[in-house]
Design a protein that fits this description.
Layout: H1 8-25, H2 27-51, H3 58-66
Length: about 70
């Protein structure tokens, strides 16, 4: 390994450029990870809200889903 004398600012700039390049090259992967995080968040919110509501009979839920009154 070659030793270099980089200043903290030079190192910071190199790291920023490397991160930006990685994000450009791995855009689809980043999109997938972000989508998974959003789905997990939405699911946890739905579970939390569900725990705070009253229970309903299955038949009533199915009637609503079928669009019948």
């Amino acid at each position: 390994m070659v030793a270099t004398n980089l200043s903290p600012e030079e190192l910071k700039q190199i790291l920023k450029e490397a991160l930006a390049e990685t994000l450009r090259e791995e855009r689809e992967l980043l999109h997938e990870v972000f989508a998974e995080v959003l789905e997990d968040f939405a699911l946890s919110e739905a579970i939390r809200e569900g725990l705070e509501t009253k229970e309903m009979p299955r038949e009533e839920i199915m009637r609503i889903l079928r669009g019948k009154k």
